[in-house]
Amino acid sequence: MANILEISEVSKTYDLDSENPVQALDRVTLDVAQGEFVSVIGPSGCGKSTLFNIVGGLIGQYEGSVRIDGRPVDGAHRDVGVVFQEESTFPWRTTLDNVAFPLEVQGMAKPEREDKARKFVSLVGLDGFENHYPAQLSGGMKQRTAVARTLAYEPRIMLLDEPFGALDEQTRMLLGDKMLEIWAALNQTMLLITHNITEAVQLSDRVVVMSFRPGKIKEVISVDLPRPRSSEVISTPKFGEYVGRLWTLLREEASRGMVESEAELAGR
Amino acid sequence: MTGSFRLSKSPVLVGALGVAVFLCVLEIAVETGMVMELVVPRPSDTFLAFPPVQEDMDLVGNFFVTLGMTAASTAIALSIGVPFGYFLYRNRRYGIAYEGWLAAAFAAPTVLLYPLFLVIFGRTYLTLIMMGFIPGAIPIVIQTRQGLLGVSQTLLNVGRSFNVSDREMFWKIQLPSAVPTIFTGIRIGVMYTLVNIVAIEYLIDFGGLGRIVSEMYFRFDTPGTYASIVAVILVSVFFYWGFGRIEKWLRPV
Q1: ipTM (interface pTM)
Q2: A154 touches chain B (CB under 8 A)
Q3: Closest Cα of chain B to A77: distance in Å?
């Protein structure tokens, strides 16, 4: 399959002018094929979010290149949709209006955008909640609203930054199933940033393991579990093997990260 | 049980009941001499004072004068305060530079400037409007800047990820997000505006309800004084309610 996203030799250093510049990413190279589900996993401080923001066009001034269908990413890109980790629904808009937001910005007429938004509300399983405000929804429902809003934008690549990170484990598993259904239904390319190993294995075709700062790609693991997949896959021995393998790779990095973070705190 | 549940579901009813109880207690307190009638009249006497004050001083007409002055001052305060607050938000350096000055100006008793305004604008409605505008604009400026500074970075990133223009970012994300904080500033501003306007009306014996309060006070007509103060409170209630409705319309939840 052709690559839709090409991340080539991307490095990013913060506070370049200061005495203590922080190198967040070091020559990261990654290709993602059309329709592929790729997860990027690593310890806190490995530059996952920096990579996410670079691909999403939310931060600039980095070395290397990011290309979508061969075109360089320079700022927010029409082909990239983003789902954030933090609560990102607009509290003053109903579920339907939230989902219709990108269509409204595109200038689509109200009846048309509401029709279209309704389809995506239904796709994420929020039928009956169209007129509810975020304050009236659970955390999982709010994140599904955010997912539907990004889907309504019809991006070619969907970037997910730990979208279910704040949710409990059971909800996270079930929403993982929902994401897999959506992914299969739309043949949507997805790049998931996460620190959750089971989530990465449950959802992905490939898992990219990153090292602690400066973030480099330590290893890329192909997940050869049957599709269509659901959360039931976690009870299989093969799933356990992948989780074990990933943890072995991550443990050293996570330990290093913890030691360095504690040393930084002690030095303050 | 059902009755108390219904009551708790109706804040307006709870509020009205609270006021009614307070007035009954006050009536008894004055009647029994616990509160001097010279200082606080019976609520029933205040109520009965409305028709004579209306006949003598056109209470309703002056209610609308004060309401109109307050509305005009608030409109000017909004049209200058919100854009200036936005300017201070966009220009960080100016925002930091003027924040302290604005806070200090807000605490200043601007009502004492009335002789100066009388010299500039004369004993006219313009003096009332300008004296109302100054204390009203300051909290709107401060709160507009604060509200915009408080907009979640994630919501701004959502806008950016959908390629929204600066204009759309302001109207569709920043402003609605900042509405609760801005409206806090507006409510505080309106109250200061009203207080200033009524105080100037009282001091220069010109305009609406403040002038009637002054007149009743100098006649030693305590129920009439309180009746006109109640009318001032009604102006305040009108604006508080009105801006509450507008806020609810702009920001339903």
Answers
A1: 0.85
A2: no
A3: 7
